[in-house]
Structure prediction request, 428 residues.
Amino acid sequence: MSMIKPEVVADHNQKQAPTLEADYAALGEKLARRGVDIEQLTRAADTFAVALPSWGVGTGGTRFARFPGPGEPRNIFEKLDDCSVIHQLSQATPTVSLHIPWDRPDDPKALLEYAQARNLAFDAMNSNTFQDQADQAYSYKYGSLTHTSEAVRQQAIEHNVEVVELGKKLGSKALTVWIGDGSNFPGQQHFRNSFAHYLDSARAIYDALPDDWNMLLEHKMFEPAFYSTVIQDWGSSYLAARETGERCLSLVDLGHHAPNVNIEMIVSRLAQFGKLGGFHFNDSKYGDDDLDSGSIDPYQLFLVFNELVDIQQADSAFAPFYMLDQSHNVTDPIESLMYSAAEVQRAFVKALLVDREALLGYQNSSDPLMAQATLKQAFNLDVEPVLQMARQRAGGAIDPIAAYRASEYRQSVARDRPQSGQSGSGIV
Ligand code: RM4
Ligand code: MN
Ligand code: MN
Prediction:
């Protein structure tokens, strides 16, 4: 089932096809001179997939305000409709990552069927113990998995186990755990005790994990706690993952580090010790800004993929979870997510173009100028025709944003979904 009429996409593609053919042929010749087969690159682009955050299709907000857009999804079914549009046009986002309880279905089987009818599957499940829910016995104001009270910790553990049980019914294969636990004042929290509680809680959740699942631990430097956070950095994440179990891995959210931190090196370190499990892609200028992937520093995104491709080539079994995690405050979330998926895909394709033999040669002969130039040679190449061709061949749109605007999907859902005043994202 297609959310947007296939004729609209076909019509749009037909107009763009002659230009694409010419650009693709020209790029093909250029790549051939470098010994690269464009067809191989296009096939690789076609295999690329990144999961959509269910919470990203509603307009986000800050702690100051939220400015809802027209036709926001009001429930998980409408969120899936929007995700299906994104995948139909971008052909790079076949899965959705759910956030529980925001997306808790009454009938998981019906939800699975609804997704399947829209060519979607479910990626990692996210638990939420950073907010209080109306029906819960204990508050998370002073922590969840690391709270000083055993009863609160137990409640948070049980929530995570419930999320795993639900994920099993939906075909998910991973649980992502991000907690807001931490402190706002020096002295407020006993560092060693709270980390010890975390380890105990993480093990209890891990025990409930099916054999073919991964548990992904997401670190974040600050917010909502502003003095210390229990899983603050990749070091804490690595230690916790190592202590918890073999299938417990670290997840890197690009926005969860201090400005200027070398994230690509964190990626390399975690992977070298078998603990890199997944990503939340977004971009940031100051902190956890949740800006669109590649909008601030596309070179950093490329450098992350440069590491990933390098690791993949050494170990073909290496397959971390890729997810977008963004908050769209001023754009149409569907447009942002289509554009962002393509930005991540672009970074991947460019990373494939790096002449690794030459790079290693320059590294070994201590030639920094040529080493960085080798990376730049790949980064500076415009691979847009490869992305466009991969999308067109897979049945998507050559230009997803233009096709989406031509479809008038947003105008149509704005009529069907009157403003509810509720946040479609669950946040704010
Ligand atoms: C957090 C973190 C988590 C996400 C929430 C909504 O900052 O990035 O991944 O689940 O936001
Ligand atoms: Mn995240
Ligand atoms: Mn975040």
About this structure: Residues 220, 253, 255-256, 288, 290, 325 surround manganese (II) ion (ligand 3) (CB under 6 Å). DSSP finds 15 helices and ten strands in the chain. The longest helix spans residues 6-33. The chain has a mean pLDDT of 97.
